[in-house]
Amino acid sequence: MAKSLRSASKKKTKAIKRSAVFKPVEDARLDRLATAQQAAAALPKVAAEEKAESMDTDVPKISTSGPKLNSKTRRQQKRAGKKGGAKKKTINRF
């Protein structure tokens, strides 16, 4: 019969593999990331004014406050056009 992943022998081999194979790789990766993070922290920070100057461009601002043109609004507009809009009130004159 096949051994389940919950069996003691499978758990033991996984633990050995985790500590012998994957642990050194993980530690090396952590060391690399820590040194890279220290190097990045040592760099001078960009001032807010320099960011603002670099952000200034002559691109016009796009307005997003208009009606949505999705299928629901198109369907509603189409129905409103078929009905003829607002009906006039009839006045009975005797």
From TrEMBL:
Renumbered residue ranges of the record's region Disordered: 50-94
Listed Pfam families: YBL028C_N (PF10338)
InterPro entries associated with the record: DUF2423 (IPR019434)
DUF2423 domain mapped to chain residues: 1-41
Assigned GO CC terms: preribosome, large subunit precursor
Biased composition (Basic residues): 71-94
Name of the protein described by the UniProt record: DUF2423 domain-containing protein
High-level lineage: Eukaryota, Fungi, Fungi incertae sedis, Mucoromycota, Mucoromycotina
